[in-house]
Write a structure and sequence with these properties.
Keywords: FAD, Flavoprotein, NAD, Nucleotide-binding. Its cofactor is FAD. The protein folds into 3 domains: 7-44 and 95-174 and 297-368, FAD/NAD(P)-binding domain (3-Layer(bba) Sandwich); 188-294, FAD/NAD(P)-binding domain; 379-483, FAD/NAD-linked reductase, C-terminal dimerisation domain (Enolase-like, domain 1), CATH 3.30.390. The protein has 13 helices and 22 strands. It has helices at residues 15-26, 41-45, 48-69, 89-113, 211-223, 242-254, 344-358, 388-392, 409-413, 442-445, 447-454, 459-463, 473-482, and strands at residues 7-11, 30-35, 117-126, 130-135, 159-163, 166-169, 173-175, 188-190, 203-207, 226-230, 258-260, 265-271, 274-279, 284-287, 289-292, 296-298, 331-333, 372-375, 380-385, 398-404, 420-426, 432-439. The protein has a 7-stranded mixed beta sheet with strand order 5-4-3-2-1-6-17. Strands 8-15-9-10-11 form a 5-stranded parallel beta sheet, with helices on one face. The chain is globular and about 65 Å long. The structure holds flavin-adenine dinucleotide and nicotinamide-adenine-dinucleotide. The site of nicotinamide-adenine-dinucleotide has 23 residues, from helix 5 and strand 18.
Length: 488
Amino acid sequence: MNAVNKSVVVIGGGPGGYEAALGAAQLGAEVTVIERSGLGGAAVLTDCVPSKALIATADFMDRFSAAKRIGVHFDGAQVPGDQGVTAHVADVNARIMELAQAQSRDIGERLESVGVEVIQGAGRLLPDRRVEVVEGVHEVNSGEEPAPHGRDHDEAAATRVLEADLVLVATGARPRVMDTAVPDGERILTWQQIWNLTELPEHLVVIGSGVTGAELAHAYLGLGCAVTLISSRDRVLPGEDADAANVVEEVFRRRGMTVLNRSRAAGVRREGDTVVVTLEDGRQVEGSHALLAVGSIPNTTDMGLEEAGVRLSRSGHIEVDRVSRTSAPGVYAAGDCTGVLPLASVAAMQGRIAVAHALGDAVAPLSLGKVSSNIFTDPEIATVGVSQADIDEGRVDARAVMLPLTKNPRAKMQNVQDGFVKIFARKGSQTIVGGVVVSPRASELIFPIALAVANRLNVDQFSSTFTVYPSMSGSLSEAARQLHEIAD
Ligand SMILES: Cc1cc2nc3c(=O)[nH]c(=O)nc-3n(C[C@H](O)[C@H](O)[C@H](O)COP(=O)(O)OP(=O)(O)OC[C@H]3O[C@@H](n4cnc5c(N)ncnc54)[C@H](O)[C@@H]3O)c2cc1C
Ligand SMILES: NC(=O)c1ccc[n+]([C@@H]2O[C@H](COP(=O)([O-])OP(=O)(O)OC[C@H]3O[C@@H](n4cnc5c(N)ncnc54)[C@H](O)[C@@H]3O)[C@@H](O)[C@H]2O)c1
């Protein structure tokens, strides 16, 4: 299709925004991206990419400790039994920030190469698909609520109004903070502030055991600091497969993390070089640093959205349909500001769908049933499709087979002690509708199940495909084989 005479303005240069911009440029539209922090968004600069890089560093260190268990010792270690490995957090963070900046630059070059104009500044929606831009604004993501048009620009900064056939709002979200736990950027931190640390916290208290809290608690434990994880629910990762979350919680405890379940933080205060977290039941937890991981709020305030006819939900998220349309004609939205499913992959897909739909290209509506996602703990938890809860609560008529990895020959060789694979197949048709993998590199192992779900393969098609011997994927095949129903 040819969208040569169409103009597209994108507010926000994260995965939702920049992927849409690339898609629109490919279709021939004239595209402008307005970004107030940096291209790549929070995903690249402070959240997804840096946290995965930190976890990769922690996992790398963990391999030194694990070496002992398979009979490998470092003769130079100064303390007997110690593998002599320490993390220099200033160096670790400097490398991670460089990596993030490099990725941001790559995105900028890609956008430039396809003719997308990028404006450094803050955007605000006006009625009738117009966008007001204050140029030169530069906001650093930190967890503080940014002024809609930024603080960090001089009053004479150029303001202009752009008109577009399609406006895409992809402004993301920021860390939720509590009035009783105000981040100071030194010892009470949001996840966007940890990259300024120059020393490893002695004792980090992580508040919130959702995906962000669990991943970062795992990372800092691996880097060598004492970690207390405060979980308001019965177990960590309350939204995830219960069997998987239980494995990860057990591993956390075994490695020395203190996990406090059914413990809700009421507030955090700083006392000199310590922080004191008060729980709602009156208990107090002391640490050297506190990390708030208590959820996010969408960047949708004071952006002119409702005045321009864009409906927001009670949580402040932009309401969209499955092709990313908002309630205002010609205005679309993608990513975390919509609250549909806060993943970089979903943001990117929503953005691509939006421009394809608006510019008249062929498009399939967003299908969340096929989204695979991964929690980068050790072991990792990867999931796709329907969940165990969907089956247990009667929403899907399916069966599950779960196989522990301890019986898998490759897992034994690699000293994998925890984890399992689980596959869900619909009763009768035996179509694979979902699965869970808990193992090292589960993020890679989930792909065959995702392929089966997306292409509606049945358990016989899946299990009759050769797997390598010995391999972890052998357990996937075996689980599917065990799901085979014998015809009456
Ligand atoms: C710690 C952490 C780890 C994560 N890890 C993963 C992971 O491993 N895998 C995964 O898939 N997802 C992960 N996520 C989720 C992922 O980061 C988000 O889903 C993703 O960032 C959403 O992309 P987005 O484009 O909607 O928003 P963002 O990436 O937040 O980008 C939005 C951009 O809009 C800009 N902006 C906002 N308002 C304006 C304005 N008025 N004018 C101009 N610009 C504006 C912001 O500066 C920002 O750059 C993680 C999240 C967190 C918190
Ligand atoms: N690997 C990944 O793909 C990845 C990583 C991080 C985040 N994400 C995305 O971001 C989403 C949000 O995750 P999140 O963990 O940032 O937020 P979340 O809202 O899922 O979890 C926050 C947790 O904090 C708890 N909490 C809130 N107030 C508390 C208090 N006062 N004391 C103790 N606990 C409290 C909540 O009960 C909740 O369990 C995820 O669902 C995921 O989609 C993805």
